[in-house]
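Good morning C.,

I know you're traveling, so I'll keep this short. The sequence:
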Amino acid sequence: MANEFDVGAFTSHIGTSGLASPNKFKVHFDFPLSLFGVTSGNTFDLMCENVDLAGRNVNSAINIEYGIRREVAYNAPAYDQLNVTFLCSQDMREKETLERWNNYIVKVNEGFDVEYYDNYTGAITVDVLDKQTLKPTYRVTYNEAYPKVINSVPFNHSSTNQTVKVTAMFTYAYYTTPTSRDTRNADPITGSGGIEDQISRGTI
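The tokens, ready to paste straight into the viewer:
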């Protein structure tokens, strides 16, 4: 039968392509330059213990004009929030970094003034790594990201030989992957001028 499951082909595919491992990844944060004076922090990247590959949902509506009801897509997709967990150094610098970024958005010590959007958003890049070579095999970039929520950090005297962790929920405008880059109206050689390039330059 044409649709019969081929165990040999499946085994061969796994042997050739391998399987992705959830503990082989790296994360890079591009901070708002106006906040920290630098756009990245290597130690902050290294202390990231857990990160999601966030999903997205196409907005849709039921078309009930006549006959069979069909759910029809419309407008831009909705993106899931991004949850990131950090191991905390003894001086809690990771939590302090998140708090500085979060407080920069709405300055609680300066009359609750809200900062300009472009000044407090950054980018987060997640690379999935090959298990053998540790080279990136897949990349997701979360654009216009910022820490919306910093979760509470529990402490108790009964915890021994454990590490303090802090989790933050980042919101972002959209994410891009190697297959989602929109090249409409782009230069066929350089790729510049497409939708994504126009967004990055603020022309749309």
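Safe travels,
E.
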